[in-house]
Amino acid sequence: MRRLRACLGAVAAVGLAAAGTTALVAGSASGATSALANRWYAAAPYLMPLDNDPPDAAAIMDATGLKAFQLAFVLAPNGGGCSPTWGGTAAVSSDTAVQSVVNTIRARGGDVSVSIGGYGGTKLGQACSDPTATAAAYQQVITKYGLHAIDFDLEEPEYENTAAIKNEIGAARILQQNNPGLYVSVTTAGTADGTGWFGKQMLLEAKSQGFTPNNFSIMPFDGGFNGAASQTSALTNFNQILQSTFGWDQATAYAHEGFSGMNGRSDAGEYFSQADFQTVLDYATGHHMDRFTFWSLNRDRQCTPADNGGRTSGTCSSVAQNSWDFAKYSVQFAGVTPPTSTPTPTPTPTPPGTACKTAWSSTAVYTAGNEVSYNKHNWKAKWWTQNETPVASDWGVWQDEGAC
After folding, report:
1. What pLDDT, on a 0 to 100 scale, did the predictor assign at position 222?
2. How far, in Å, CA of 5 to CA of 1, rounded?
3. Suppose 15 and one of 56, 92, 124, 187 were both cysteines; which one would form an S-S bond, judging by CB atoms 3.0 to 4.6 Å apart?
4. Mean pLDDT of the chain
5. Contact at 8 Å (CB) between 293 and 70?
6. Which H or E run includes 276?
């Protein structure tokens, strides 16, 4: 599964971050600070900063409004040892290249999460002696980059290793305890039934250790999937697994569930279009899921004709698209409208005397199409929102439907 990502210059994968509303502040190694709502970390797409022809993060931010990036992947050294590296080769302790990317993103008001694991390579959970040593290695990454969020991408072959998964889950629990406010997410493989046997064993390990991350995400691709309907079916099934494993009700399970997709052509030759992403996004927001992300920004651009011959690429999607089309779905999940070349026209005011809708509430969650009244006007939500006061704006979440 996901073998392409193991051979394209480094290890690659898809994973997760987390949703919510609490803003976190932490200092980077350079002394800069950054603060984003947790929902941005939940919406951060994957970016390989050192491999697969890395795109310019600043250009993506300018084009889409994206603020958060999931940097991948931290692994054990290829030569052995329990210390963090980028892709098994570049020591985190002496890194300047990734730090430069982080500084660029933060200077523009954004932030990063870091993903550990992925498909291929040696994971720290495999190389370190126990959960404490594994956590100490990951703490170096958190401290180096002043992280607000970290992603545990636990998939094959590591998640077939019981001792390694015990180390990874134990490390995640320790980091969560030692770094108050740190957003911790866990990503694993998806199947038509939700997740497979090893994914279920990983959930049981988390339960046995008393560990609950901000969310568990599945990757519904590379497993015989065919478009959005098969993905939303897997998400429904995974919700039931979360309920039965942790004793949660349906809403609580969705609040701890995430989606991590693959844009365009998957490693297994499946195709996921912009329309598929929209369908899954609607499902995620409609069920108040905690995360929506994808692999990867390196692939979020159209292939050249010579490179678009029905193969999966680490640097383009193999589907017809404009650059950063798929990133805009993450932006929508975070609750911000992607910039467009043509502003949304101001709607014609509703004639006076129209009945007012239910009053807007700062604590309620609204999704696309929901209507409220505020300040003697009716308003319609364009996408998911919470605690955003209805105001007239071309780029805002609320559409003014006129006086009431």
Report:
1. 96
2. 9
3. 187
4. 87
5. yes
6. helix 274-286
Q: Which residues are the active-site residues?
A: 155
Sign of the CA dihedral running 40, 328, 308, 271: positive
- Strands (E) in 250-341, as ranges, are 257-262, 264-265, 271-272, 291-295
Q: Catalogue the E-assigned strands of 190-275.
A: 215-219, 257-262, 264-265, 271-272
The token pair that represents 345 in the structure block: 């026209």
Residue 399 is inside which H or E element, if any? Answer: strand 398-403
> Is the preceding peptide bond at 69 cis, omega within 30 degrees of 0?
no
Amino acid occupying residue 339:
P
Phi, psi (rounded to 5 degrees) for 20: 145, -165
Six-digit token pair at 306?
Answer: 């010579």
Residue 277: CB atoms within 10 Å: 23
CA dist., res. 205 & res. 207, Å (int): 5
Q: Which residue has the higher pLDDT, 356 or 167?
A: 167
Measured CA to CA, the distance from residue 110 to residue 63 in angstroms comes to 14
CA R_g for the chain: 21
Select from 178, 217, 81 the least CA-distant residue to 137: 81
User: Residues 10, 53: contact at Cβ < 8 Å?
Assistant: no
Three-class DSSP category at 284: helix
* Cα–Cα distance, 67 to 192 (Å, whole number): 32
pLDDT tens digit sequence for 15-67: 333 333 333 433 444 444 556 999 999 999 999 999 999 999 999 999 999 99
Q: How far apart are CA 382 and CA 390, in angstroms?
A: 11
Q: Quick one: average pLDDT of 194-218?
A: 98
pLDDT in tens, 78-105: 999 999 999 999 999 999 999 999 999 9
Specify the amino acid at residue 31: G
Give yes or no for a contact between 10 and 73, defined as CB atoms under 8 angstroms apart.
yes
Spatial CB neighbours of 367, under 8 Å, sequence gap ≥ 6:
285, 286, 381, 383, 384
Other CB atoms closer than 10 Å to residue 85's CB: what's the count? 25
Residues contacting 63, CB < 8 A, separation 6+:
323, 324, 339
The DSSP code sequence of 8-40 is SSS-B--------S-EEEEE-TTS-EEEEEHHH
Identify the DSSP state of 53.
S
Torsion from C-alpha of 291, 278, 314, 227, nearest 10 degrees: 110
3-state secondary structure (DSSP) of residue 187: strand
